[in-house]
What we know:
Layout: H1 2-26, E1 47-48, H2 69-79, E2 86-90, H3 94-107, E3 120-124, E4 128-133, H4 139-156, E5 163-164, H5 166-180, E6 182-183, H6 193-199, E7 201-202, H7 204-217, E8 222-232, E9 235-246, E10 249-253, H8 255-258, E11 273-275, H9 277-280, E12 284-286, H10 315-319, E13 321-323, H11 330-341, E14 346-351, H12 357-366, H13 369-380, E15 393-396, E16 401-405
Parallel strand pairs: 6-7, 13-14
Antiparallel strand pairs: 1-5, 2-4, 3-4, 8-9, 8-12, 9-10, 10-11, 14-16, 15-16
Amino acid sequence: MNKKKLLIPIIALAVVIAIILVVVFSDPYRFRPEPKLPEKQISLETKETIKRTIISSELCKNKLSEKLLPVYETIGEFMNKSDSETFYVENVSEGDFELAYEAYSADHPEVFWIDTKSAYSYYETESTLEIEFNYILSGTTLVNARNDLNKALTKAFANVPEKANDLEIEVYINNYLVEHCSYDTNSAMCHTAYGALVNGKAVCDGYAHAFQLLCSKMGIACSIIEGTSDFNDGKEEGHMWNCIKLGDDWYNVDVTWNDINSAQFFCERFFYLNLTDEAILKDHKFSPMFNSPDYIGTTTFNIFLPECKATEFRYLDIYYITIADPKNDNDMIASLIASANKKEESCSFLIAESLPYAETCREIINNGYINEWISAANHYCSKANQISMETKAYTYKNHNVLTVELNYE
């Protein structure tokens, strides 16, 4: 009798345990707190946008010799008139004048009315250069075009955050150009900031000048970089991009390559945002410095070219979750939840550099990790934001990125 009495609570306990196990295994996330993304720590001062002041850093001017500084100032005087005028410079070779001209042009992306194919004509005597800039616009037409550019700059910042740090402003500018400009080799003034911001069509130097101009309006030091890239089937072509100063360090930025026509996902507009020299040299090449042994007067050259070694503000490292161990899934699930709640089309991850990229991607895709992460994320998402298991993964080996396409139930 006593044994029977003892058996009843044991059976009851076993039933309860069985029920608990069924509940747990049918929904393993029932008792797991919702994963949260780690807070981003960005060591940049947040500023009120309205209090930001325009800077003209004149980075290239500071690299010129004392002899060429007056020439630089004279160029500025005659380049900013409403009509082209002849002027003279003494005891300066045409090569030195070209250097001063390139320095001024690199420092002043707002200048768009000089012919990009033939900027000036000159007549050289023994000690004097007679110079005349080749304007493509002049008089009232130029005044109106300058006003159009100023209106375009105002429009560009119409939706800028009221408070932001320099990285957030840079991301805003990058996004604005990607969304409002398209690559076009046939558009008028496509090599200028005017082409990118007013016409909405530009090539690489138009993108670069526009990015530089927008950064300077927000008080962020930025310059252009001359070089080549191998975008078209590995063929080396002339190219221009930017360097930007964030905190105490310089970074490479290529907005043109962030605006690829074939881009499938949002992540692709950030692949070339704040790279080291080592990273960008995988598919870019710097033109020589003007004072280096490699410089030849007939080639493109750089006057200001800072060393970019820092990785602190590389966009992908800050905003994307890094996968160091696919089994440690907390951050991956949290990232999918955040993307689903915004109904984003994709969610991207970085593969840790310590891991073999291709092998790790195969493991994640073939071993079902992505489906496990999605299943977990769906536990915490509303019915309207449920992610479908019918999804695809895309790999970007050059950037260590794995992107999961998101479809919804």
